[in-house]
Design goal:
2 strands, binds iron/sulfur cluster, 6 helices, 49% helix, mainly alpha
Length: 110
Amino acid sequence: MTLTAEILQQYTAPRWMRRARCANSDPALFFPEPGDPGNAVKTNAAKRICRDCPVKALCLRWAFETEDRFAVLGGTTPYQRTRMTKNVPKRRFRTSGRFTSSAVRRKKKP
Ligand code: SF4
C-alpha cells in the first residue's frame, strides 16, 4: 500500500475499524471468491476471527448500512445477512404510534 492510500484510508474509514481483529488478517479469508472450493474453510476461519472482535456489532451494522454483498462482516456471510433481513417480520406503523404485524391484525378479526 502506498503512503497516499494509507493516508486516504485513515481519513475515510470509520474509526472503529482501527480496533478490528481482522486488521492484520489475510483479506482472502473475508472475501470468498465465487466457485472457490476452499470457500467454506476460508469463511469459517474468518468467522473465528470475528467471534472475539471488539467491534463486531458495529461491523455488522456497517454491513447492513452499506448493503455489502461480498464480504464476511460482523461474523456473518452475505448470504446469512440476506436471510436475516428476510426473516424480519413485516410490520406496519399505525397512527397510534405502535407497531403491529399482519399476523396480529389477522388474529383480531372474528
Ligand atoms: S467483526 Fe470480523 S470483519 Fe468485522 S471488524 Fe471484526 S474481525 Fe473484522
